[in-house]
Amino acid sequence: MLALVTGASSGIGLQYATALARDYHTDLLLVSNQEKEQITVAKDLADKYGVKTIALCRDLSKQDAAEELHQYCIDNKLEVDILINNAGVFFFNPLVETSMKRFELMLMLHVVTVAKLCRLFGEDMCKRGNGYILNMSSMSAWMAYPGIQTYNSTKAFIYNFSKSLWYEFRPKGVGITVMTPGAVDTELFGLSPYWRKVAVRLTVSIPPEKLVVIALKRMFKKKKWGMPGVINHLSTPILKHTPDWLVKLTYRWVGQFQK
């Protein structure tokens, strides 16, 4: 099998690549905009686990990034059995204080490219009658929260888009799973090392390797959705109905926990 993993040079994407090579002996097409890091990761995984790896440097926020990546696979006769849409960015900022470039980057990366990759590779999988797609959403999909207005909205798109596609793809033998983790212990959210440790101890944040083990098990079972952690499941109804006064209060001090 061949797995295409986006954002695979670090963080959760690196954990996905590692787990697929180590636990499932899956060949890898690793895509990231960090060329040097991606090459190193690909070589290390190939040497350590004896799988075939390809490191591909691509800016997935480009308008035609999905088409280019799909065409690359066609040109090189690469049949993708697993697609993991993991690449993402995060920023905490009022919308009018966010540069248009950064705003567009998130929309392209989280919405346009994810949707196009599902469309292109999903068609190939449906024709073959097998395949797996795993998309990364977030618990923030249920949050109306200032500062992350673009992030939570794009994650809500991924969540609903993926669950809708599950009904379309499943009868054709293709599984599509969407994961909605809470905080994950990576550098994505900009927390200081101290607060990252505190969050993990309080089980507010989950180590990425733990998330990946759960996500891959659900993906290979072709489950529609997954969310790790009992606390996250208990918190979801609260997130959906958080009163305005509490949103305003937390917004005032949450920035202090970032770097």
What does it look like?
By secondary structure, this protein is α/β, with parallel strands linked by helices. The chain has a single domain, classed as Rossmann fold (3-Layer(aba) Sandwich). It contains nine helices and nine strands. It has a seven-stranded parallel beta sheet with strand order 3-2-1-4-5-6-9, sandwiched between helices. Helix 5 links the parallel strand 5 (131-136) and strand 6. Helix 1 (11-24) packs parallel to helix 2 (35-49) and helix 4 packs parallel to helix 5 (149-169). The N and C termini lie far apart (40 Å). The model has no long low-confidence stretch (mean pLDDT 90).
Domains, number: 1
Proportion in β-strands: 5-15%
What coarse outline follows from CA principal-axis ratios? Answer: globular
Mean pLDDT score: 90
**Reported CATH architecture:** 3-Layer(aba) Sandwich
Question: How do the strands of the widest beta sheet line up side by side?
Answer: 3-2-1-4-5-6-9
CATH uppermost class? Alpha Beta
Given as residue ranges, the uncertain stretches (5+ residues, pLDDT < 50) are none
> End-to-end span in angstroms?
40 Å
* Element order: H for helix, E for strand: EHEHEHEHEHEEHEHEHH
